[in-house]
Design brief:
By secondary structure, the chain is mainly α. 45% of the residues lie in helices and 9% in strands. A two-stranded antiparallel sheet has the order 1-2. A two-stranded antiparallel ribbon has the order 3-4. Helix 3 (92-106) packs antiparallel against helix 4 (111-126) and helix 4 (111-126) packs parallel to helix 8. The longest helix has 16 residues, at 111-126.
């Protein structure tokens, strides 16, 4: 289940180099599939299941794609990295699939696809207004701070109350080679158009 969370900060973490073998084991364990949304890519990133980067037990190693990774380490984001939005009609995993497709389309040589992608990203980001009105902020760092200050029970309650919120990343931070799969289905403009039209018909009208 994809929810806002924090990487556990432990003593010595900042000075520890992550061994390459951990990345290898994580991809072997997961078969390159993101733990949360299922996106398959050899570019997915190492993730510690218990959020403890000092726990190198093989069972604790998996991978996440860059979008889901940000949800799991909310405290690492600044105001330019993204915004929190209210999207109760779309599952968080689907929000990330839609974002990823739009990011791919932004890199298309076809201006029609680029304009459609901008429309999707703008529509997603526009939902931050509801969050700002209700919570007083759409800054992911503020939500991270609330989680950091909460006890275990309070944190679980916050995560429950935030179940209809989503994180929309700044696409400029997620473009370029090596971010997502080099030949994922989102590169197929026909499939991307179908995905976009499906959301347009149900949510963008």
């Amino acid at each position: 289940m994809l929810i806002f969370s924090l990487l556990r900060h432990t003593w010595g973490q900042a000075h520890q180099k992550i061994p390459d073998k951990l990345h290898h084991h994580a991809h072997e364990n997961s078969q390159h599939q993101c733990e949360y949304c299922g996106y398959t890519s050899k570019n997915n990133r190492l993730h510690f299941v218990d959020h403890n980067p000092l726990n190198h037990h093989r069972d604790n190693l998996t991978v996440v794609d860059p979008l889901c990774e940000a949800w799991q380490n909310l405290g690492a984001l600044n105001a330019d990295d993204g915004v929190v939005v209210y999207l109760p009609e779309i599952r968080p995993e689907e929000v990330n699939h839609l974002q990823r497709a739009a990011i791919f389309a932004l890199q298309s040589v076809d201006p029609v696809y680029r304009e459609a992608a901008k429309a999707v990203i703008n529509w997603l980001a526009a939902h931050k207004k509801d969050v700002e009105e209700f919570w007083g902020t759409a800054h992911p760092g503020e939500f991270a701070e609330a989680l950091a200050q909460a006890g275990d029970e309070q944190r679980a309650e916050l995560q429950r109350r935030w179940r209809h919120l989503a994180l929309i990343r700044n696409p400029k931070k997620l473009t370029g080679k090596g971010i997502f799969a080099d030949n994922g289905t989102e590169w197929d403009t026909a499939q991307w158009t179908d995905l976009y039209q499906g959301y347009s018909n149900t949510n963008l009208a």
